[in-house]
Specification:
This protein is mostly beta strands. Helix content is 12%, strand content 38%. The protein binds beta-D-galactopyranose.
Length: 942
C-alpha cells in the first residue's frame, strides 16, 4: 500500500470504528489464546533512575512506565518463545540454590508481547487473562501498570479495555516476574507457566467465572439454582435477558429458564433462576455424567454473550461416624496429594500430560486428589470432572486480608461448578492453627467460602493444635489431620459429631526400580520400609485409616514425585522420594501396593524385584507381591519356591535364594489360579524400545505425548537394570519439549535431546507443532545398541483461535507543542525547566486551526530499538500540514517544502538509543497546520 492509500485506509477504518463505538453491538465472545509470540529476558531490567524535574514529572504519569515496561523499550535482543513457559526447569542445578526448590536458580524475568486489535473491537470489553504467573508479578499494558499479584497460583482477569489502541497502533504487554519471591517449600517453577488469553465480549457481558450452577438434590427431585453475573462497561444502562439451558451428556436440552437483568453502565447485576430437573444421570466415579449449563445474554440487538459451564448431578456429605458419602453411598477417600511439576517440562505441563498423570492415578485406584498446596490449572479440574476423580481444592495463603481473600474468592468462583470438587481447604499446616488468631482468621475465610458456595464443606490441613482450647477445627466443617494417626480416636471421641479426614499421611521414601537401599548414594528401596520420621509406611498409614470408618479417607503424600524437597537427603538429590510414582509418572512399588488396597473390580498382581542379581547366586533375595488376591504361590523356573496367604494391607514377602531364571507369582483363590506376573533374568541390553502412550497427536501445538524409552536384551526381555545414555532425534510436525527418567539424584538437563535410562526407563515428551500434520518420527540411539523408531501421526486440526503476535511498532508519542510564534524559532527550542504548562501536550492528530502567528515547534523524545538503529530505518510523518523542518538531536534531518498536507519520510541515521525530535512547522495564512498523521519509525528494507 502506498503511503496515501494507507492513510485513506486508516481514515476509513477509524470512521467505521467510531460508528461501532456509537452503536456498540459486538456479538458473542471470543476467547483467544495469547500464548504464542512472547519475548523473554532472563534477569531484571532496572528502569532508568528517575532524576530531575522533567523526568520525575513525566514518569509519574499514566502510560509512562520506564525501562522494560515502557512501550518503546528495545527488546530486539530478547528470546522469542511461546507460553506456557517455566524458566527454572531450563536452568542448571547448583548446590548453592535452595534445596526446597530443587537446587535451581529462580531469579527475575521479563516478558513482552505485541498485539493489534481491529477497529471493530472498539467499544467491546476486552480482558487479559493470565491463568498463573510464578511468583510475584506486575503487568503493564501500554506503559500503564494494570495488575500486581503476589501468588504463583491464582489466575487474574484484567479489564484492559480503557488502555487499548486499535487499528495500526500496536499494544504492548509487559510482565515482570520476580521468582526470588517464593511461596512454597517445593519446586514452584517460574514465569508465565499457564495459559494466557484475550477475551473479547460485548460491553454488556457475562462476568468471568460469573455463572454459578451447582445442582442440589431436594428429596426425590433435583433443582439447579443458577446465578449469572452480568457486567457492563457500556456508557448507558441496559435491560437484557439471561436464558439458561441445561444440556444432558448427549447435548440434548433438558431444562431451560430465563430471567431479566438490568445493568447500569460500568456496573454489575446478577440474574437468578432455578431449573428443576428430574432423574438426571448421576455423576459417579465410574460414569462421570457431565451436563452443560448454557447461559445466553440477549437484548433487543441480539445475542450479547454466551457461556457454557460443565456441571454434574451428585450429592456429597461427610458423616462423623461413617465418613464420606457420594450419592448417598459410602466411599472411602483413596486419595493422594500432588504438586504440579512433571519431568522435562517443570510446571509448564501440557493438558494432555496432566491427563496422562491423572489416568495413571486413576489406574492406581486413586479416587481423590488433593492439589497441594494451591489451586490447580483450570483444565485440570475439567479433567477431574471427566475422569471421575474427587478433588480437595486447596487455597495457597492463609490470610484473610483483602489481597489474599481475593485469591480465595477467585478459587471458589472458578471451581464451584465442578462435580469433582468435594472439599475446600483453606490452608496446609499453619502454626497459628491452634490459636485464637488462627481460629479468627479461619472463621473469616470459611465465611467467605460459604458466601460463594453453600454446598461443600470446608477443611484445613492441620498438623497440630487439634485439641487447643480455641483452634481451627472449630471454624471448619471437616477436621483435617496431617500425620496424626494417634489423634483419630481421641478427636472422634471428644467431638463425636464432627467429621474428620486425613488430609495428608504416609510420607515414605522409595526410589523407582531400586531394591537395595544405599544411603551413601541416596537410594531407598521399594519394599515400603522407609518411612519418614513424621510419617508411616504406605501400608501402616492406610491401615490406620482403613480400619476406622469415621476417618473419611487418606491423602497419601504423594501420588507423584516432585522436584525440590529431596528429603531425607540433600545435594546432589534434587527431587522428592515420596511419590507412589516418579517424576515421569512411572510406577514405584507403592503404586501397586495401593492398587492392591484400592482396586476391587479386577485382579491386581505385581511381583518385585527384577530378577537380575548376578553375583548373588544362592543368596536370598527379598521378593514382594502386591495383590488383592488372598493367596500367592511363587515359582522359579516352574518349581514352587514359596506360597503364602496375603495380608490385604501388608501384602506378602518371601525370601528366595537367587538363581537366574524366570520367577512367577501365581495369584490364587480357593486353590484356583487368578493370574500370573513374571520377572525374568535378562542378558545385556541390546536394543532400545520406544513406546508412545498414544499413536496420534492433534496438530494444534498443544497436544503432547509421553514416550517411554526402555531396553531389551537380544531375546526381547526387558532389562530393568539398564542405565544407558540415550540420544533422541525427531523429524516431522512436532518437537521434544522435555526429557526425564525419574532419578531424584540426576542432574541431566530436562531440555535437549539426551537422557539416560534410569533403572530401565526414561521418558521423552513430544509435542505437536501448531498447524502440524503428517508423520512424526522419533528415533532413539545409544552406542553399541540397536536403536528404536516410533512413528506418531500428527492429525491436522483447526487452529485454536489466537491473537497473532504483532511486530513492535515505534510510534513517536508524548509530544509537547510550543505556543505559536511569529518568527522562525530556534530549532533546539525546548520548554524551560519546570514548565509543564506553557507548552501543550498531545498525540497526532495535532491540527491547529488557521493561526495568527505561523510557527510552532513540536517536540518529542523517543527510543530507537537496535533493529531500527541501523541507518536504514525511516522516520515517517504520515501527514504534515504546512512547511516543516525536522531536527533530531539538534541536527537537521530534512525539510518539507510543500505547504500542502502530505507525508514526509526521512532516513534516520545510526545514533543514540534515545533521541529528541524537534519539528518546526510553518503554517500558511488561513490554513490549518500541524502533525496531522502519526509519526512512526519504520524498519528499512533489508
Ligand atoms: C508435610 C507438608 C508437605 C510436605 C510433607 C513432606 O508436612 O504438608 O508439604 O512437606 O510434609 O513429608
Amino acid at each position: 500500500m502506498t503511503m496515501r492509500a494507507n492513510f485513506r485506509f486508516l481514515a476509513a477504518t477509524a470512521a467505521l470504528a467510531l460508528l461501532a463505538a456509537g452503536s456498540a453491538w459486538a456479538g458473542t465472545r471470543e476467547r483467544l489464546s495469547l500464548d504464542a509470540g512472547w519475548l523473554f529476558h532472563l534477569g531484571d531490567v532496572a528502569p532508568p533512575a528517575v532524576k530531575g524535574h522533567g523526568m520525575s514529572y513525566g514518569s509519574a504519569k499514566a502510560g509512562s512506565a520506564g525501562g522494560a515496561a515502557a512501550t518503546d523499550y528495545d527488546d530486539s535482543g530478547w528470546r522469542r518463545l511461546d507460553l506456557p513457559h517455566d524458566w527454572v526447569v531450563e536452568g542448571p542445578f547448583d548446590a548453592g540454590e535452595n534445596a526446597s526448590q530443587g537446587y535451581r536458580p529462580r531469579g527475575i524475568g521479563w516478558y513482552r508481547r505485541y498485539l493489534q486489535l481491529p477497529p471493530s473491537d472498539r467499544g467491546r470489553h476486552i480482558e487479559l487473562q493470565f491463568d498463573a504467573i510464578a511468583t510475584l508479578s506486575q503487568v503493564w499494558v501500554n506503559g500503564i501498570v494494570v495488575n500486581r499479584n503476589w501468588s504463583g497460583y491464582n489466575g487474574r482477569n484484567i479489564d484492559i479495555t480503557p488502555y487499548l489502541r486499535y487499528g495500526e497502533d500496536v499494544n504492548t504487554i509487559a510482565v515482570r516476574v520476580d521468582a526470588d519471591a517464593q511461596e512454597g517449600w517445593w519446586y514452584e517453577g517460574a514465569g508465565i507457566y499457564r495459559h494466557t488469553w484475550l477475551v473479547k465480549r460485548d460491553a454488556v457481558h457475562i462476568a468471568t467465572d460469573g455463572v454459578h450452577a451447582d445442582p442440589v438434590r431436594k428429596g426425590e427431585h433435583w433443582v439447579l439454582p443458577v446465578t449469572v453475573d452480568v457486567e457492563s462497561s457500556a456508557k448507558a444502562a441496559h435491560d437484557a435477558q439471561v436464558e439458561v439451558s441445561l444440556l444432558d451428556p448427549a447435548g440434548r436440552e433438558v431444562a431451560k429458564g430465563r430471567a431479566p437483568v438490568h445493568v447500569g453502565g460500568l456496573d454489575a447485576a446478577t440474574a437468578r433462576l432455578e431449573l428443576s430437573v428430574s432423574k438426571p444421570a448421576l455423576w459417579t466415579l465410574q460414569h462421570p455424567a457431565l451436563y452443560h449449563v448454557r447461559s445466553v445474554l440477549r437484548d433487543g440487538r441480539g445475542e450479547l454473550d454466551r457461556v457454557e459451564v460443565q456441571t454434574g448431578f451428585r450429592t456429597l456429605r461427610f458423616d462423623a461416624d461413617r465418613g464420606f458419602f457420594l450419592n448417598e453411598q459410602p466411599l472411602k477417600l483413596q486419595g493422594v496429594a500432588i504438586h504440579q511439576d512433571h519431568a522435562g517440562v517443570g510446571v509448564a505441563v501440557p493438558e494432555s500430560i496432566w491427563e496422562f498423570r491423572l489416568r495413571q492415578l486413576k489406574a492406581m485406584g486413586v479416587n481423590a486428589v488433593r492439589f497441594a498446596h494451591n489451586a490447580a490449572a483450570a483444565e485440570v479440574l475439567d479433567l477431574a470432572d471427566r475422569l471421575g476423580l474427587l478433588v480437595m481444592d486447596e487455597n495457597r495463603n492463609f490470610n484473610p486480608s483483602p489481597d489474599y481473600m481475593q485469591q480465595l474468592t477467585w478459587l471458589v468462583r472458578r471451581d464451584r461448578n465442578h462435580p469433582s470438587v468435594i472439599l475446600w481447604s483453606i490452608f496446609n499446616e499453619e502454626p497459628l492453627q491452634g490459636s485464637e488468631a488462627g481460629y479468627e482468621m479461619a472463621r473469616r475465610m470459611v465465611a467467605q467460602v460459604k458466601k460463594l458456595d453453600a454446598t461443600r464443606p470446608v477443611t484445613a490441613a492441620m498438623h497440630d493444635g487439634l485439641f487447643g482450647e480455641v483452634n481451627v477445627t472449630q471454624a471448619v466443617d471437616v477436621a483435617g489431620f496431617n500425620y496424626q494417626p494417634w489423634a483419630y480416636d481421641r478427636f472422634h471421641k471428644l467431638h463425636p459429631t464432627q467429621p474428620l479426614t486425613s488430609t495428608e499421611d504416609t510420607s515414605a521414601y522409595m526410589t523407582r526400580g531400586a531394591y537395595d537401599s544405599d544411603r551413601e548414594h541416596h537410594v531407598l528401596d521399594s519394599y515400603d520400609d522407609e518411612p519418614s520420621e513424621w510419617g508411616a509406611t504406605h501400608r501402616k498409614a492406610w491401615r490406620a485409616i482403613a480400619e476406622r470408618p469415621f476417618v473419611a479417607g487418606s491423602f497419601v503424600w504423594t501420588g507423584l514425585d516432585y522436584r525440590g524437597e529431596p528429603t531425607p537427603f540433600e545435594w546432589p538429590s534434587a527431587s522428592s522420594f515420596f511419590g507412589a510414582m516418579d517424576l515421569c509418572a512411572f510406577p514405584k512399588m507403592a503404586f501397586w501396593i495401593h492398587q492392591a488396597h484400592w482396586v476391587k473390580d479386577r485382579l491386581v498382581l505385581k511381583l518385585v524385584p527384577h530378577w537380575n542379581w548376578t553375583g548373588r547366586e544362592g543368596r536370598p533375595i527379598r521378593v514382594m507381591v502386591a495383590t488383592n488376591a488372598p493367596r500367592v504361590r511363587l515359582l522359579l523356573d516352574g518349581k514352587p519356591v514359596g506360597e503364602a496367604d496375603v495380608d490385604p494391607i501388608d501384602m506378602v514377602t518371601f525370601q528366595v535364594p537367587y538363581a537366574p531364571g524366570r520367577l512367577e507369582a501365581v495369584a490364587l483363590r480357593d486353590g484356583k489360579e487368578l493370574g500370573r506376573d513374571t520377572v525374568e533374568t535378562s542378558g545385556a541390553a541390546a536394543r532400545l524400545v520406544l513406546t508412545p502412550d498414544r499413536p496420534v497427536l492433534a496438530g494444534d501445538g498443544l497436544d503432547a505425548v509421553p514416550v517411554t524409552v526402555s531396553a531389551v536384551d537380544a531375546q526381547g526381555r526387558p532389562v530393568a537394570t539398564a542405565n544407558l545414555p540415550v540420544h533422541f532425534d525427531i523429524d516431522g510436525a512436532g518437537s521434544i519439549i522435555g526429557v526425564g527418567n525419574g532419578d531424584p539424584n540426576s542432574h541431566e538437563a530436562d531440555k535437549g535431546n539426551d537422557r539416560s535410562l534410569f533403572n530401565g526407563l526414561a521418558q521423552v515428551i513430544v509435542q505437536s507443532r501448531r498447524a502440524g500434520r503428517g508423520p512424526l518420527t522419533l528415533r532413539a540411539t545409544s552406542p553399541g545398541m540397536q536403536g528404536a523408531v516410533a512413528m506418531i501421526d500428527v492429525k491436522a486440526v483447526a487452529a485454536p483461535p489466537a491473537v497473532p503476535a504483532a511486530e513492535p511498532f515505534t510510534k513517536i508519542g508524548g509530544w509537547r507543542i510550543a505556543p505559536a510564534q511569529a518568527e522562525r524559532p530556534d530549532p533546539g527550542m525546548a520548554p524551560s525547566y519546570g514548565d509543564m504548562n506553557t507548552w501543550g501536550w498531545g498525540e497526532p492528530p495535532m491540527k491547529q486551526g488557521p493561526e495568527t502567528q505561523p510557527w510552532r515547534v513540536y517536540r518529542a523524545s523517543f527510543g530507537v530499538r537496535a533493529d531500527r538503529n541501523d541507518g536504514r530505518a525511516r522516520l515517517v510523518f504520515r501527514e504534515i500540514a504546512g512547511r516543516a523542518e525536522v531536527w533530531v538531536d539538534d541536527v537537521k534531518l530534512g525539510d518539507k517544502t510543500d505547504p500542502a498536507p502530505g507525508p514526509l519520510v526521512l532516513a534516520l541515521p545510526k545514533g543514540a538509543a534515545q533521541r529528541t525530535l524537534n519539528v518546526l512547522v510553518q503554517s500558511q495564512p488561513g490554513q490549518p497546520s500541524g502533525l496531522v498523521g502519526r509519526v512512526v519509525l519504520e524498519a528499512g528494507a533489508r
